[in-house]
Amino acid sequence: MLKYQKIANEIEHYIYHNNLSQGTKLPTVENFASKYGVSKSTIVKALDLLVLKGIVYQLQGSGIFVRRRNRSGYIDLNTTAGFTSTLKDFNISSKVLDFKLINPDSEIATFLECDISDEVYMVKRIRYINNEIMCYEESYYKKSVVPYLNKEIVQGSIFEYLKTALNLNLGFSDRYFHIEKLDETLAKLLELNVGDPTLNISEQVYLSSGLLFNFSKISYHYKHTQFYSQSSAIR
Amino acid sequence: MLKYQKIANEIEHYIYHNNLSQGTKLPTVENFASKYGVSKSTIVKALDLLVLKGIVYQLQGSGIFVRRRNRSGYIDLNTTAGFTSTLKDFNISSKVLDFKLINPDSEIATFLECDISDEVYMVKRIRYINNEIMCYEESYYKKSVVPYLNKEIVQGSIFEYLKTALNLNLGFSDRYFHIEKLDETLAKLLELNVGDPTLNISEQVYLSSGLLFNFSKISYHYKHTQFYSQSSAIR
């Protein structure tokens, strides 16, 4: 992590730690620079990053202000790498339905951009939020990138394991959303009725090196999930 | 727009104009600096912005590489300010069902953070994608920020008008997503059946000054819409 990224994290913690509300004016660049003992240009870069992350907004000539979302309990669509970290206030758990090392079929191989002779970890889980069904998830990990997984690990946060135990640098992800009616298989898994609505997300996750290593299909329980996304006009 | 933002846009255009594919290595920082006649630090800042926008990724020591999504025809959830600009390849049109200046009810006043005695433009539209129903949209604009709208304007892209005619600086937005079953009113508007799935999005849009000026409720047609979102691990 670069210095300005580290400072950005510290300023973000400062905002949450002090529970600053929407529109609160932050200290000046000069104040932050002396507080953290870094140059003004590092603070400017850190604040630019926080603008892009939607944590603050800058009003030229007036200062820097806090941006806070109004509602809690929403799954953040802006964050890569699972939602365990974005739902800290909730009890997230998993039931593993299937876990094994397989050769992917041609559909999975296409989405994982690998060969059908490659080895791939397959994980099928029901995920729970506060003991209610949140989603059904089928996830595939290239063994060439994720050399080891076991049933105990996949019961928890797989991405946490990838980051901390395997020391992988997660990069970015592409997510594709479709609103659909549940078929019989999914309805049974989510304990809903055939034809009930669901949000299906296909996700491809890349290392920071640009290497695609994970493909997942997730079907969300429409009564137990809600989502949040923020954007900035700069995008 | 700051210089590095302008350069970031030019590099983004360069990628699309040359139709560079995923993983293509870009010129070096030095090359870009001399090409655009700016300092290396401006290029570095522009590239940082493009990393955050998901346009490129950087591999320390190896260079900068193009990131391209794999599928087209998806509505981009990362962009503020309507989808007309994110669906350039499609024919987007609107049928205005209702347009008037009103005093908001207490629900709308709450979401717009205004008083029920304030004046607010209300726009109800069906939006079409390639002549198929894309969504039903109810949108509310504070008259104190958007002093003039008419039926002709709201038939097109309202955000384009706000930016170009009213010269407003759009800032950022908060979006809340719920998967729901269509009730009778919405089913009729979308020409679907009661109980069919829909994605409901509530959106609050802010000026870059942090002033909330627009609240919308949008219900998407599940057969004619699909969505895309990308994230970077830095977030």
Topology:
The structure is a homodimer of 235-residue chains.
Chain A: H1 3-17, H2 29-36, H3 40-53, E1 56-59, E2 63-66, E3 75-76, E4 92-102, H4 106-112, E5 120-129, E6 132-142, H5 151-154, H6 158-164, E7 170-181, H7 184-190, E8 197-207, E9 212-221, E10 227-232
Parallel strand pairs in A: 3-10
Antiparallel strand pairs in A: 1-2, 4-5, 5-6, 6-9, 7-8, 8-9
Indicate the proportion of strand residues of chain A: 25-35%
Task: Say how many strands of chain A there are.
Answer: 10
Secondary structure: helix percent of chain A: 25-40%
SSE pattern of chain A, N- to C-terminal: HHHEEEEHEEHHEHEEE
Q: What would you call the structural class of chain A? A: alpha+beta
Strand order of the largest sheet of chain A: 4-5-6-9-8-7
The most extensive contact between chains is: A-B, 58 and 58 residues
Q: How much is the radius of gyration of chain A in Å?
A: 20 Å
Largest sheet of chain A: 6 strands, antiparallel
Low-confidence region ranges of chain A = none
Q: Give the overall shape of chain A, derived from the CA principal axes.
A: globular
The residue-averaged pLDDT of chain A reads 88
Query: How many DSSP helices of chain A?
Result: 7
Multimerization status: homodimer
**End-to-end separation of chain A:** 23 Å
